[in-house]
Amino acid sequence: MGPIDADRLMYKNIVDSNCIEQDILPKDNINDAIEYLKNNEVPQIEGLYEALFKRETLRHCSVYVSDKNNSKIISAANVGIQHENIDPKELQQLVDFAYEYDQSNKVMVLFASYLLYERIHLHEDGNGRMGRVLFLENIYQLSDTFVPLSTALRYNKQVKQLMNEVFKSIGFGEIMKKRQIKCGDAAIYRVEIQEIDLNKFYEIINDNQRTKQQYYTLDLDDNTSKLIVKLLNMIR
């Protein structure tokens, strides 16, 4: 087998990461991000985000990751930390710590850092892509612990199911019952009721009372740790 073409592999992983999110970034953005990663031993969150997305790094609003939305419920798989509590210095310290860590369990530490990054959700968009490339898929600086998670998520349903189970166990979700719409309601009232439900759900998201400490503390129970190990064994 010939030598690995790191640039091509990095490009493929970022493309796969975008395909998961159904949002394909321009080639120039991807190439800029690759050049940035090659030239920075420890990536800076702001520098990488600006290279890849060409927009402001930190969000200034509430965000959540959609989950089930059917005739009975609206739910979020995870609600991001209140934007007032986003601390870019502390998040960069998380990246620095993960890159400097050199013990035998480094892959688990990197994966846990990725989960924290996802749960905090500091960007308005692109949190998954940033987390994966920062902690798992930076082949230039993490060659010994490189985990092609994006490719596995794109093509392997079992990996995707495992990842969903892991996120479910560590995420801060919300669920709200919808108002039941009677069969006799006119269509216009049906739309109005749906809008009322969505507005109520947004109020729940905006009223997130979880503390900064809760978001920055990640306790992996035995079951979640086993799921992560199983997932990593499938793709490494």
UniProtKB/TrEMBL annotation:
It comes from the Eukaryota. InterPro entries: Fido-like_dom_sf. This is Uncharacterized protein. It comes from Streblomastix strix.
